[in-house]
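Both lines are quoted verbatim for reference:

——
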Amino acid sequence: MSFSLECKKVKRTGFTPAFLFGGLLAAVVPVLNMAVRSENYLGIHAAPVQILLDANWQMMAMLNILLIVAGACLMYHTEYADNAIQKMCTLPIKESKLFFGKVTLMLLMCIVVLVIEAASIAFCSCHWFEMTSEVWIEVMKNFGYALLLMLPSALGSLFIASVCKNMWVSLGIGVVCVFTATMLPTRSFVLSLFPFALPFQIFAGTAENTACNFMIAAVVEIIIIGIAEVLFLKVRRSFE
């Protein structure tokens, strides 16, 4: 019910086209990079997927997170415009279900974006490197890992957007969080656990133990943000 309702709400906001265009824009990054500077990467002795992600994922991840931040702000802007969220609260549905309906829609759009980007990485692997049967397995592993690590930033963006009634405030906070994440030392495991820094991590070339720690941290952050949102809604409702 809440998911279908969220789909109807964003139907006329440009939410879906924005994610599709953003996914295509991020997918173009490795193609253009290989087309212009392929000689810089063809001599590297590593798996094609690892080479491509090492060279392009930082830019692709930043575009993904900025897209998530903008999408979250857009979703809640429709709620706070003309006090629509107050009207929704009069319906026989919990406000937390509205949040998790938005989370489901965001998750779906993140999957769509990552599928587009995975197709781009697979194309570059096949076109510029030697094609092997392991390429598809590596692509699925890396982008499944990327999806999990992207979820804390998605929930975090939705949480911020739900707290701030002014879309520009939540957008500003989100952008500051993104650029803060880009300035954190990449070798520091603790600082890399910042929700907006997690999506910059790459599965390929990462030690198995470290990758497992990042995945556990992502799951824990998802649970914490979900609980924080439920508590916030209860507190806000008691003061209204």
Residues 2-239 form one domain. The mean pLDDT is 87. Residues 95-128 form the longest helix (34 residues). The chain has one domain: 2-239.
